[in-house]
Amino acid sequence: MDADDPSWSVVFDGFDPAMERSRAAQLTIADGTIGTSGAPPVELPGSRAEVITAGVFSGTGAATDLVRCPTWTRLGGHPAVDPELRRELNLYEGVLYQEMRTTRGRVHTMTFSSLARPGVVGLRAGGPGLTPASDLLWTGLDTATGATGNSEGASWARVHGECGGAAIAARDEVRQDADGAQLDRLGVYVTAPTRRPGVATALRRLAAMEQIGFDGLLAEHRAAWALRWASTDIRVDGDEALQRAIRFSLFHLIGSARAGGETALGARGLTGPGYKGHVFWDADIFILPFLAATHPAAARSMLEYRFRRLGASIAAATEQGYGGAWFAWESALDGRDVTPRWVPGPDGQPIRIWSGDCELHVVADVAWGVDAYVQWTGDQAFADGPGFRILAETARFWASRIEVDAGGRGHIRHIVGPDEYHELVDDNAFTNVMARWNLGRAASEARRLGALNADELERWDALAAGLVDGYDPATGLYEQFAGYFALEPLIIRDMLPRPVWADTVLGRERVQGSQVVKQADVLMLHHLIPEGVAPGSLGPNLAYYEPRTAHGSSLSPAIHAGLLARAGRFEDALETLQMAAQLDLDDLVSSADGVHVATMGGLWQAIVNGFGGIRPSRDRLLVDPRIPASWTSLEIPVRFRQSQVRVRATGDRMDITARPSARVQVGSLPVQQIGATEASFIRRDGEWEPAA
Ligand code: IFM
């Protein structure tokens, strides 16, 4: 691992108030529990230091929002006259370095949020005029719900919502040397979603951390990052910009979730308050696979979040007259839906949002996340217990929601699919095929476990078999929903540069009456459940839907990129991959409220599943890389079951190792056991064969 490689760092020079919120989000340092924005350590116009913690909410309904924690990164007594500022996020170390000119001279800082001990933070500053801060400038603290104080030389603050809260204790130490002062600050956050942590706990933990000391904690933190990178870093030789973007994405994904307890992973992770920290399908579909394949314990804590909301989801379904569990489109503390029903439109007029009532696919998405985790990890205890309960209750929901017509065909009506430009549609192919998959998967798990009664399972089988899916074997196309093909055939690719918010640019009504698709919809099926769609249907559906997709959601481009790579359309794949890779680094759709962690998870999937052709399939790992000529090599580590597997592809050659050995299927070769000794393959006439 070459830690001096420039693609390990993200540097921003200067200070632009208009860009500052995006910069602070891009430079967030997070440890899976708290995220601290990369705002400068002194007050500048437009800058706002911010600390958020996962899953600690206040408010009710759609107003449910993340509690803002007290901050810890500000230096006192240094108003900047000239905001000459340089910030460098060292992705390899997980450390943010800043250097700036202040009224008293140059000040430099380094900050870390310990990956080794989530909740522990450290700041080291050097320069003239540094003095210990008595109250550490707890910015952003709502005094109605918070308090600050001092205790034996340490500062503390606490804040809470209706249920949970956070407390921090911190202390500064200043040493004088020839160049001025060096200030070391250690802090400890204690956070909890359903109780209010006491200041005494934070003070006690602070005292324990001070025993280890700043340098000891920093060394532990760096070692923890090095360990994560060793099993996570993806290497693309031949494209330095892409390499940096991949590492930037992996960095924020790693910081989003930790092992243990439950993780409510919101749409912007721990990098900002966007979507008020609510949990969407982004978590289950876009981020969970990355964690399942690199840090399974963190994926498990995401599933724990869902499992603990199963009761609320069953209650939500019952209230609406359905069976099983209806997971909320937007979920926060208690698992009840918190999606806003109305939002102001561009002209100020309120717009009805139907997702909370009708974007049902989230139910199958949660089930898919369960299955993806089990396939990557082989965690049988989870599969047989909580995992099966989620699969069964989600299947029951579909069984109660499907309407069977006089001819015996099943329909799911009046819904919203991933393409949110078209609302209240019937038989959205994505939703129906995912529901079919959900029923089938739950039934086969029930049979494996000898659970549930045969009548119920037979009913699931019959409903799954009878569900319409909009597929036409004559064209190889899935119709996105009933009536979609009759809409105005607008080809957004030929009209506007993408990504584009087509509804804002062309108007909602025009877009609703057209074939413009907001984000991957039918094509999500080819990505998520390639075995659940008609064989050979990827090509025609890609050709049809790709030019019609606006990528008006950041979730979309990475999915297209991976599928385009599978189809061997490398030029288009790389163009779309770049859109996903640069989305936050280039602030393509504004990162002001946090970076788009689902896009980052999608980028990992595009490279691993798409270009790498790596995916778990029951007891084996499928491997079939396809890489463009412009990449010298692609190297991907994944954890499959108990094995650390490494795949390295260069042109038409590939080497694989697995420690301990794993069952691997390369292309269409028979499954084989691969171990620590490199197994090599070459591609001849499009087919992999063992290298001589
Ligand atoms: O979950 C997404 C949705 O698919 C599109 N709008 C934004 C949501 C949060 O990222």
Task: Summarize the model shown.
The chain is of the alpha+beta class and 692 residues long.
Description of the molecule:
The chain is an alpha+beta fold and 692 residues long. The protein is built from 19 helices and 29 strands. It has a nine-stranded antiparallel sheet with strand order 1-6-7-8-9-13-12-11-10. A six-stranded antiparallel sheet has the order 14-23-24-25-28-29. Helix 6 (296-307) packs antiparallel against helix 9 (362-377) and helix 17 (556-566) packs antiparallel against helix 18 (570-582). The two termini are 29 Å apart. Bound molecules: 5-hydroxymethyl-3,4-dihydroxypiperidine. 5-hydroxymethyl-3,4-dihydroxypiperidine binds at residues 267, 275, 280-282, 418, 420, 553, 555, 598.
Which key terms come to mind for this protein?
692 residues; alpha+beta; 29 strands; 33% helix; binds 5-hydroxymethyl-3,4-dihydroxypiperidine
User: DSSP helix count?
Assistant: 19
Q: Find the count of extended strands (DSSP E, 2+ residues).
A: 29
Strand arrangement, major sheet? 1-6-7-8-9-13-12-11-10
Q: How does the helix and strand content classify structurally?
A: alpha+beta
